[in-house]
């Protein structure tokens, strides 16, 4: 059944479309299980860059009334750095957190920089150049203790498929992952978003994926991504 051709548009009402829709929903359930979350919190994207951009710009768009202060590390991927640079030009205050000689963030500095108007903290779980692994469970706890309303985004592009991630245990609100990093096709990605958030979509269109990520779903890409994710965590 993994090789079955799904020709129908998953948003269509005819039977071929329903078959494709079931394939996408099954993929969503599989991915959700790897993150210990519910299927409705999983969205399929074109990759890590889109997911990272969505986390930054979507939070800025949805929470600007609560504040314009955001934090990120000095060792983030350009897919995070450049969106924050753009937001600074638009009147936001995106501030960097330093790391030590091993690439680990200064926990005390993080805690001291979280303010009442801090709407987002973005941390790369495993760095794409050094392999440094941040303690996101500890970081998530500190963020929520400092400001329960501050959203915690994790760039898990290099971690997903290789590292156990329990989004609830780690207080993660948003997470990004890229399919080709764990054996799925290029051009596929994951965006996890906790239920009830006001994060804005990057695009507007036909209302697919609960209106959060419109556009006809990449059925084959979602199915292949889910298969790869399941295999990675099984083995």
Brief description of this entry?
Helices cover 35% and strands 15% of the residues. With 235 residues, the protein is an alpha/beta fold.
Characterization of this structure:
With 235 residues, the chain is α/β, with parallel strands linked by helices. 35% of the residues lie in helices and 15% in strands. It has helices at residues 15-34, 48-63, 78-89, 107-113, 136-146, 219-234, and strands spanning 42-45, 69-73, 93-97, 118-124, 151-155, 174-178, 189-193. Strands 1-7-6-5-4-2-3 form a 7-stranded mixed sheet, with helices on both faces. α1 runs parallel beside α6 (219-234) and α2 (48-63) runs parallel beside α3 (78-89). It starts with 14 loop residues before the first helix and ends with a helix. 43% of the residues are buried. The model has no long low-confidence stretch (mean pLDDT 93).
Keywords:
235 residues, alpha/beta, 7-stranded mixed beta sheet, 6 helices, globular
């Amino acid at each position: 059944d993994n090789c079955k051709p799904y020709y129908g548009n998953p948003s269509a009402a005819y039977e071929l479309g329903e078959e494709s829709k079931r394939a996408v929903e099954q993929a969503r359930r599989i991915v959700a299980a790897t993150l210990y979350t519910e299927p409705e919190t999983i969205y399929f994207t074109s990759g890590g860059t889109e997911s990272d951009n969505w986390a930054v710009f979507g939070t800025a768009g949805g929470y600007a009334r609560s504040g314009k202060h955001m934090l990120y590390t000095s060792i983030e991927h350009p897919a995070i750095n450049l969106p924050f640079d753009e937001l600074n030009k638009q009147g936001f205050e995106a501030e960097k957190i330093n790391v030590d000689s091993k690439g680990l963030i200064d926990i005390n500095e993080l805690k001291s920089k979280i303010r009442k108007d801090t709407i987002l903290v973005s941390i790369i779980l495993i760095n794409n150049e050094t392999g440094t692994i941040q303690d996101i469970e500890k970081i998530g706890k500190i963020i929520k203790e400092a400001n329960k309303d501050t959203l915690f985004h994790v760039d898990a592009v290099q971690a997903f498929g290789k590292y156990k991630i329990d989004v609830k245990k780690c207080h993660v609100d948003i997470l990004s992952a890229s399919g080709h990093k764990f054996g799925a096709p290029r051009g596929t990605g994951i965006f996890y978003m906790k239920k009830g958030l006001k994060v804005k979509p990057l695009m507007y269109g036909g209302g697919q994926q609960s209106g959060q990520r419109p556009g006809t779903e990449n059925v084959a890409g979602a199915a292949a991504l889910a298969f790869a994710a399941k295999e990675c965590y099984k083995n």
